[in-house]
Structure prediction request, 403 residues.
Amino acid sequence: MKNCLIAQSGGPTSVINSSVIGVFEKNLTYKKFDSVYAGINGIEGILNENIVNLSEINKDIVCNLKYTPSSGLGSCRYKLENANSSKEEYIKLFELLSKYHIDTFFYIGGNDSMDTVNKLSIFGKEINSNIKFIGIPKTIDNDLDVMDHTPGFGSAAKFIATTALENSLDADVYNTKNVFIIESMGRDTGWLAASATIARINNRPVVDFIYIPEMPFDKVKFLYDVKKKLEVKNTVTIVVSEGLRDKDGKFISQMNSFGTDKFGHAQLGGVANYLKNLLKQSGVKKVRAVELSTLQRCSMHYASQRDIEEAYNLGEFALENCENIESGYMVAIKRVNNIPYESEVFTLSTSLVANKVKYFPKNWINSECNNVTDEAYEYTLPLIFGEPKIQYENGLPKYVKIK
Prediction:
């Protein structure tokens, strides 16, 4: 008997389940494994033996996960200690994998999750285990190194740009001076906020200013830029990253920080409201602020079909080629052509991605440090194409739950 196990970790995306279904459906065709098991709530759930056999669940229910947002198998933010300092969890995990006759473990996640894949593959080699560990990427932050982009980013970009587009129109209905501020996720990088550059009407950007962590934020210049823009138009639309920093590297929202997560990352929020208050104190009377929060990662109705298919293709490729993919490696997306858009799957060691960050290119930031260049537009636009093929029931999207 030979089985595989798949699990999800970290923050959800609207397309993370597509990778699960890529593995699951491809196995129905190739029958590489007798059963496809799911670890509920990632490594943390597996250690608690919270494991279900997807192959014993109604196929139609499982496959509808492809168009269901969030992590259908549950998630976790669980950091494995280094095996050198604590082997107990590793030993327990390998015993559980052997109990379920797991030959290959597919782990879907970001750079912290790829660190887990890397650690498990190293320990497996040390104990001469034949169990293979393969990573499948996801994150709306688009901050995984080496690869062109990550599944989840295109859909989040589409949601952010649509939100900017629609709200800029809403804010512009009155003949009064006003500012509308949208706060996107992005603790370390500005990919998400920068994606708002694709929001256009009559081929002109609707977002006047974009501020990201890669450019130091200057309060004085910010106030000057906004007031100067208000002299020539009624509505100013701004998009900011939650991880906005000043010239000293201090988070603008540090006063509103909610501590740190299990990986030691600052849990941020409140930049938009901070800037709103800053503008009001400086004399701008009408300012609105919106924090998109989890909306940008769970809105399947705004998802990019291209994003869905690329996430699916990664799972499909990982299953189809699992015998030839080295343990501790992951699948990733390479952009082959931009117009017309074309991509392909390649593999790389998780050691090149784990605990590393791919920052937004500084040469894609304008000279005023208050917006991004056309390169950001050309990079992002191809990733948002296509509407999700969602099933509807009673007027609402028909989603499913496994766990």
